[in-house]
Amino acid sequence: MRLDGVLLACNDAALSLFGVATLGGILKTDLTHRLVAADRAKWQEFTTRVYLVRDDGARPVAVQGIALKDHPDGVDSLLLSLRDQSQTHRLEHSIQSAEVTRVGQEERQRAARDQVEETIAEHRRLAALADEHQAECRRLTEALAAQTADCERREAKFVELEKRVEESQLASLGKEREHRARVAALETALAVAHAAHATRPSVHDKNLAQTGQQQPVSGEPDRRELLDFERRLKASTAEQSRLRAIIGDHEIQRERIAAEHQAAVATLEQSLALANQEAALSRDRTRQTLAELRSQLAQALVEQSRLATREEEHEGERDHMIAEHQRALGDLEASKREALVDLRSQLSQALTEQRQVAARAEEEHERERHRMSAESDLARADLETSKREALATLHSQLSQALAEQGRLTAQADEDHELERHRMSAEHQRGIADLENSKRDALAYLHSQLSQTAAEERRLAARAEELERERDRMSIDHERAIADLETRRRDALAELRSQLWQTSSAEKSRLADHIEELERERDRMSAEHRRAIADLQTSKAEALAEAEGLLTEIHQALFKDGLAGVERRLIDTIDETERETADLERLAELQGGLTQAISEMQTVLAPDDALQEPFEADDASLRERAERTQDEAIVGIKPPASSREDS
């Protein structure tokens, strides 16, 4: 048959199939006209597929041959069975292409997974760097806050020290001013006492001169009295000198204390200056550190923004790669489905061709049987004709011809049976081969599907593993954050302990200094109390001596008055007036001395509790002097009245 469907040759089986008796009725006719109209397109596709020759015209063909011996035509020949293997090779090529495609897809998937893992690792590294930068920023911020708090604390401490120094300076100035005022008052009192003591001898000498002129006899006791009084005045002057020496000692001690105070103030000012310099240096360092920290913070923020941008880019790339991976998986699934559909279509085509080959083999076998039957009939007809023509001449060969015919018939039947069994075995073998190839193809497809499912399960397991890794990394990140918080709290506790130790050391040093100042103050208070006690003792002794002197004067005056009542009436009145003046001057001197002593006591101990006993003693002394003066006046006046009576 030509490619356009025109029949070029036909056997008896085809003639019987087409219902044509002679070859002339079938040859040179179009076969497609004898097909159903619905199957003509399939016939065209079949002819195109069958006639398609690939690989430079070479087609793989499986050839099977059967030797035909004793053929009726008398020619030794072979019965060939040609089976086209191009479809099987195309299936194998498709399977190999699918395998290569699968390997390429696996390599691309592996590369995509590696790239995704690298992206995830880079993302984690960037996250770790961002966390480190944030931790560094927090640490620098905490250090800056600590330095700022330290500077503020130092400034507050410096302000407090300056305030204390100013208060101590003001207190020392006030004390020094008060001390100078008291010393000036004491010097004034001493000058007044010296002036009174200087004027006292001249007045007393005048009185003595007048008294010596009036009464030469009574001048001796008065001179003794005056000498005694002068001795007592000298003792009082010596006491004043001793008090002046004590005041000088106190002045020296005050100057020493003032010098020590000035030295302490100078030391404090020097330490304050050093502290101010240190504070200035600390402020400069703090400003430099703050500037550096700000620059580092700016750099860290820029780096963090850059890392965030890069992280976003990596996130975009990762999403893009995940999308490409999903698209590649979709393409792989689509290609697998297409390959499976193609393999199924090719398998169906192979089964169809196998059925067609089986049908053609059956038809060929049938045609061969009919041909052999026709040839046998023709041979018998020829034999019958030759028998009728040469019946007379061939009676001798009839038995041989009949034997030959039986032999040929038996051989033909045997050959036909062998051919039928062979064709059946070949058919079974072809069917078994097709079944085996089908099973192999199905097994390969099942293996591919199982591998694909295993790959999908592996990818799912990998995704779960990545998810667990992400959870673990998040847990590690939270643990690292907790560790950083713990270290930060420990650092703050350590800083607080250091600050507490520093403040404790400073407090202990200040406490020691305060205790030393307290001891110095107690020592000075003890010395001051000893000086006050000495002054009180000397004052008590002076008061006792003055009281004894006043008592002796009172007794002497009283005895002189009683002894010379009758004898010295007018002179006694004048002497009484003189003694009254002397007593007044003595009272004035005693008052000046008492005032000087009270002022000295006020200067040395301004305490009211210490001043009250002296004021009480002064008051009692004044009362005694007034009472003695009154008694003297009263004791003298009666003799005067008796003289008037006489």
Per DSSP E runs of 2 or more residues, the count of β-strands stands at 2
Pairing-aware structural class of the strands and helices? mainly alpha
- What share of the residues does DSSP label as strand, in percent? under 5%
**Percentage of residues in helical conformation:** over 70%
Regions with little confidence, pLDDT below 50 for 5+ residues:
213-218, 603-614, 628-646
Mean pLDDT: 69
Order of helices and strands: HHEEHHHHH
Radius of gyration: 76 Å
* Number of helical stretches of at least 4 residues: 7
Overall morphology? rod-shaped
In order across it, which strands form the biggest sheet? 1-2
Description:
The protein is an all-alpha fold. Helices cover 87% and strands 2% of the residues. Helix 5 (398-563) packs parallel to helix 7 (608-645). The chain is rod-shaped and about 245 Å long.
Protein topology:
Layout: H1 12-18, H2 40-51, E1 61-68, E2 77-84, H3 86-214, H4 219-389, H5 398-563, H6 569-604, H7 608-645
Antiparallel strand pairs: 1-2
Helix pairs in contact: 3-4, 3-6, 4-5, 5-6, 5-7, 6-7
Short description:
The protein contains seven helices and two strands; from the N terminus they run H-H-E-E-H-H-H-H-H.
What are its keywords?
two-stranded antiparallel sheet, 646 residues, single chain, mainly alpha, disordered C terminus, 2% strand, 7 helices
